[in-house]
Structures are given as C-alpha cells and as structure tokens.
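Fold it.
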Amino acid sequence: MAQTTKPILVTGAGGGVGSVSGIIVDLLRKQNISVRALVRRDDHRAQALRERGAEVIIGDLTQLPDVHRANPHLYHWAKSAVAEHDELRIPFGSGRIPPIAAYDVARVAAVILTNPAAHIGKSYDLTGPKAVNMDEVANIYSAVLGRKIRYVPLDWNEWKDTTLKEHVLKDGWEQHTADHLANLAQLIQKGTVEVSPNVELLTGSPGMDYEQW
C-alpha cells in the first residue's frame, strides 16, 4: 500500500494520557507518516507532540482562520481559477449544490466533540442552507470582487483526463482526492443535491449562506 506524503491532520491531539488522538499520533509517527496536530494551547502537551515528530498548529477548531491554517489548500483550486481568469471553470453543468461554510462544519464538530456519547453510531449529511447553481455562484463572486466573473462549464471527461491528472502528476495530489472530486462533479451534474437541516438541528442556529462566507 502506498504511503501518503501529505501530513494527516489530527485534532484534539493535546488530550490527556490515553486519548484517542494522542494514540493516533503515535501510531502514524511509528509508520513515519507526517502528522499535523491541532491543539488549543502551546503547553507541555504541545511540546510533547513536537518531540514525537508532529507539526503542531495552535488554534481553535471553532475558529475559521485556524481551520484554514491547518488545511492551507482549502478552496485554493476554485479561487485560483477566478483570480487568474475571471472565470469559474468547473464541470458542474447546471446542477445545484448547497455549499457549506468551513466554519459551520467546525461548529458541528465542536458540538459532537463536546457530547460524543449522543452521536455514537450516527452520521450526518451537512450542507449549507440554500442550493445554488454555478451561474449564481459566479454572480456572488462578481458582487464581492467588484468585477465580472463568468461561469464556464467544462466537459467532465476532458476535465478528469487533463486538469485532475495534472494535479496528481505535478502538484502531488493523492489519486483518491482526484477520484473523489471527479465523482462529486458527476453527482452535481445529475441534479440538485438536497439541502440538509442538520447544521441548525445540531448547533441551534442556521448555517451561513454562500454570500456570507
């Protein structure tokens, strides 16, 4: 089995002796796998993680900037295309999706981590509160950036065989990441992804519209 060359993010890694996250860090480091550990405080536990070979990120999972620092490639792909070409070039056809803000994902994670027993054996579909198509997304970019952004729907097969393959070969993407994006694009092309109420049900407040984030 090929070993990943990308660091694996482990949250809550500063937990006490015997914590699941701490054990995961140890097991991964024993296999010489890079680990990025997100902890809330830079204390003796953070130093112990460094001594075990982990890259330590000090932050709060409920704070969007900290989540982005822990995962620096988040949204890079879509943003770079808009920045360089004033075009949103993606093979989503006319499909509609309810995009979810990373902050709302973090809020849900915080709720579950606070009371994990209530969520054992459960899974939750998480979406934003409103479905939009890519023309609408391009209009949102246009309003925020103050310049015209145009949606250019790409052919799925060509995109899969060229753009995604280039990211794998030149940018070091894992193949399963490319496969996931290819499958996601196909699902979006086929129709509307249903809006889930789970963010509000779990946190007590609705998620952010795409315009808000």
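Strands lie at 8-11, 35-39, 55-58, 87-90, 96-97, 132-133, 150-153.
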